[in-house]
Amino acid sequence: MSYPGGYPQQPGPPGGWQQPPPGGYPGQPAPGGYPGQPAPGGYPGYGQPPVDPLWGYFSAVAGQDGQIDANELQRCLSSSGISGSYQPFSKETCRIMIAMLDRDRSGKMGFNEFKELWAALNQWKTTFQRFDTDQSGTVETHEFQQAVTAFGYNLQPNTIAVLVRRFSNDGRIGFDDFVSCCIKLRALTAHFQARDTMRNGSATFRFDDFLQVAMGL
């Protein structure tokens, strides 16, 4: 369902992150893992607990505080191979990823946030591959519009054109730019929805609030 403003009831790409209500992402598994994992002895009768494979990627770059910044996230994602045959994520895209999940505004990301990001990236990758019908490694304007529509948005052609100009090279959007666009679209929609209390496609922002939302990504 789309509201008059063109955004979906649950905005943005599937499989995203937990956000403060309203307009959050679908629920994620309860926080677990590190720190606070059961001792190596495991649970009685069950042997040693399984180790989350993502922990290896994360712990290889995390500092003593158990957090990673944008530079460390870039190294982590590159070593994990999540980009597959696509270009590795740029530092700017990694900064946007951090900003999207940086609930305490520390400029860093913890392990649970990293797991949320990983789930979202995999689903964005699936969507990208689905609409890259010619398997060129990029999506063109009509393919991008189909992907945005699949996310539940009903955007005007002029808006689609603006997004394509912003995130494409010669009208083709690569995976890195696609993810960057998805994150910004999802974040801005969540902030807008929080202020669109009547669900009529209109919202009021104080100037400082607008700058924090627009410049914080």
TrEMBL record:
PANTHER family linked: CALPAIN, SMALL SUBUNIT 1 A-RELATED (PTHR46735), EF-HAND DOMAIN-CONTAINING PROTEIN (PTHR46735:SF6)
Family matches, as CDD domains: EFh_PEF_Group_II_sorcin_like
Protein species of origin: Amphimedon queenslandica
Any Pfam family: EF-hand_7
GO cellular component terms listed in the entry, alphabetical order: cytoplasm; endomembrane system
UniProt-listed InterPro entries: EF-hand-dom_pair, EF_Hand_1_Ca_BS, EF_hand_dom
Biased composition annotated in UniProt, kind: Pro residues: 10-24
Domain (EF-hand) ranges: 119-154
Ranges for region Disordered: 1-46
Keywords: Calcium, Cytoplasm, Membrane, Metal-binding, Repeat
Compartment(s) where it occurs, according to its Swiss-Prot or TrEMBL record: Cytoplasm; Endomembrane system
Taxon lineage: Eukaryota, Metazoa, Porifera, Demospongiae, Heteroscleromorpha
The protein's name in its UniProt record: EF-hand domain-containing protein
Segments traversing the membrane: none
Molecular function GO terms recorded: calcium ion binding
